[in-house]
Amino acid sequence: MKILGIETSCDETGIAIYDSERGIIADALYSQVKLHAEYGGVVPELASRDHVRKTIPLIKKVMAEAGCTQHDIDAIAYTKGPGLIGALFVGVGIGRSLAYAWDVPAIGIHHMEGHLLAPMLEDEKPDFPFVALLVSGGHTLLVDVQALGQYTILGESIDDAAGEAFDKTAKIMGLGYPGGPALAKLAEKGRPGIYKLPRPMTDRPGLDFSFSGLKTAVANLYRGSDKSEQDMADIAYAFQEAVVDTIYIKCRRALEQTNHKYLVVSGGVSANIALRQKLSDLLESKGGKAYYPRPQFCTDNGAMIAYAGYCRYQAILNQQGQFEEPVIRAQPRWPIADLS
Questions:
Q1: Residue 143's Cα: distance from chain center in Å?
Q2: What is the Cβ-side half-sphere exposure of residue 236, based on CA atoms within 13 angstroms?
Q3: Are residue 244 and residue 111 in the same domain, yes or no?
Q4: What is the CATH number of the domain that holds 166?
C-alpha cells in the first residue's frame, strides 16, 4: 500500500510517499524561510502563494523519485489542520482534487497527530501507551496517548509555544529569522551560572506551560548587557536552560501522573540537543525510554502526514468505517483531543 502525503500548514511544503512494506520511499521538502526572513516572521498570504507554486512540482518530483504513477497510489493524505487557513486550503484543495481524479480515498490529517506519530518512522518504535511532548513554534502540548486517536491533553502552553519563545527571544537579541536554531547554537558558547532566569509555572501544580515571561526577562537582560559575543552567549545559555528545565519538570510530572515508561518528543524544538539529552537522561533514570524522529522529520514534513494517513486508512478499514465525504474543508483551529 502506498500513501501520498501533502503538508502545507504553514511555511514548508512537504510531499512524501509511504510504502507499507518499505517505509518512506520518496520525500521532498521546500522551506520558505528565505521568503519570510525579511519580514521577521511568516506572512500568511505569501505562504499560501508559495504553496501554490511549489506543491504540484514537488508531487511530480516525489512520484518520479519513487517510480510511481497515479495507479500505484492507494490513498492521499493531506494536512487538514490546524494551521494557516490559506496555506491549508492549498494542500486540501490539491489533495482532494487528485484523490477525485485518481479515484482513491482522501484522508484529512491532524498536523499534530502527524508530529506525534513521526517517531514511528524510525527502526525503534514506542509501544502504546506513552506520553507525547509536542513542542514546536506553534504548539507545546503534553498528551496522554493510549492508542491511535485516544488522546488526552495533560498540559499546554497558555501563551507562547516553546518554539515561538525561542524565535521571539532571538529576534530581541538581533539573531535574525528563524532565530530558534541560531539561539541554540549561540547557547553552546554560553557559560552556566552567569545569569539565572525563572522556570515559569513550575512552582505550582499542573502541567501547563508559560514562556512569555521568559521572553520579557531576556529582553531586560539584553538591554542591560554590554552586547559582547560572550555576554550574548551567556544570555542565550540561560534562556535555553530555563526552557529545557521547565519542559523537563513538566515531563517528569506527566510520567509520574500517568505511570507511563515511554516519552515521545516531536516537533521542531525536539531537535534541540540540550532538550534531548535532558529528557533521555530522565527516562533512563526511570527505566523507560525517550523516542524522537530523525532531525529531518522534526520540523513540518510530508513523511509524517503520509504515515499518519496510512495509520488512519488502516483504522478505517479495520473498523469498517467510512472515509470523509468529498468536501474541501480545512480546520485552522482543531484540538487534537477532538480526534476519534
A1: 14
A2: 28
A3: no
A4: 3.30.420.40
pLDDT of residue 304: 98
When pLDDT is cut at 50, 70 and 90, the band that residue 48 belongs to is very high
Tell me the binding residues for substrate: 134-138, 167, 180, 272
DSSP 76-127: EEEEEESS-HHHHHHHHHHHHHHHHHHT--EEEEEHHHHHHHGGGGSSS-PP
Q: Is residue 321's pLDDT more than 80?
A: no
- Domain count of the chain? 2
Does some domain include residue 233?
yes
| Percentage, residues of the chain above pLDDT 90 | 91
Residues making up the annotated binding site for Fe cation are: 111, 115, 300
Residues in the chain: 340
Name the β-bridge partners of 291. Answer: 264
Which pLDDT belongs to residue 322?
78
Nearest to 283 by CA among 258, 256, 307, 263: 263
| Annotated binding-site residue numbers | 111, 115, 134-138, 167, 180, 272, 300
Whether residue 178 has a cis bond before it, omega within 30° of 0? yes
Q: Are residues 183 and 328 in the same domain?
A: no
